[in-house]
Amino acid sequence: MSREAVIGLSLALAYLVFAAIFWAYPFFWLARLSVTQWRFFDEPVFTGGRNLLLTVQDPQFQQAMWNVLRFLAFYLPIAFGGALLVAFGLQHVGRGKTFVALCFLLSNVSSGVAVSLVFTKIFSSTGPLNAWLFGWIGVRVPWTTHPTLAMLAIALVVAWKFVGYYGLILYSGLLTIPREIYDAATLDHARPLTRLFRVTLPMINPQLMMVLVFAILVSFGLFTEPFLITGGGPADSTATPQMMIYETAFRRLQPSHAATMSILVSLASYLLVLAARRLFERKVVIA
User: Fold this and answer.
1) pLDDT recorded at residue 102
2) What is the CATH number of the domain that holds 103?
3) Contacts of 245 (CB under 8 A, 6+ apart)
4) Which positions, given as ranges, span the membrane (predicted)?
5) Residue 193 sits in which domain range?
6) Does 285 have pLDDT greater than 80?
7) Is 189 left (phi over 0), alpha (psi -120 to 50) or beta?
8) What angle (nearest 5°) sits at the alpha carbon of residue 64, between those of residues 124 and 149?
9) Which residues contact 142 (CB under 8 A, 6 or more apart)?
10) Long-range contacts: 31-35, Cβ < 8 Å, 24+?
11) Is 22 a domain residue?
């Protein structure tokens, strides 16, 4: 083995050991747990595909997976629209652009618990948002007690947290578009919307796909906001797979069942990401 190979392996050894301890071992333990029956205090008993059958037939788990798609239906338009506004806005900021960009990241690094508690007060029936709506149009919106509006409220909170981060990703893509392309489009008398859909968005396809992948992963990993704001209600309309895994493992004391759920959730998120990339990812070449 060459000296360079030895040095490279030595540098990577720390990460390999870390991955083996904190990723590979938990993964194999999870796979083993999913085909056994265990309640924390006894020895695991092999049960084969029983946990898989129970999970697939569980109506609450099915509802939680359906809620992921409902959340994405609200979240994606809000997140992409807000992120594009942030990205285009940063293009027109002169002095203090770095400070403005860092301000957009404040929500992303804020505590999810603190953010959820604040928005719980904002969305309450007597909160400032409903007080403003009642004074303006004379109605109070049941943000957290109506099944559809509750999911919209969750999507708004999560979008508020991540839209600045997504906007910076899209802004980095805008910086890579050569100015000559816009000049050529202007010479061809392309209207602003034509330039947006025919030039800008296709040229930042890698950044758009990154945001889309992040949004899908966020939707499958959602826990704090629905747990604290709605508790999964009303009628399980905002229950998420992560909430189901937590409920099953630590309240029902069925960690084997929860392990199977986590594997199915991971597989579903991977397949959705793969499908999104196959449908929307395009190779961008700047000659």
Assistant:
1) 84
2) 1.10.3720.10
3) 258, 261, 262, 265
4) 12-31, 68-87, 99-119, 149-171, 258-276
5) 56-280
6) no
7) left
8) 30
9) 125, 149
10) 31/263, 33/255, 33/256, 33/259, 34/256, 34/259, 34/260, 34/263
11) no
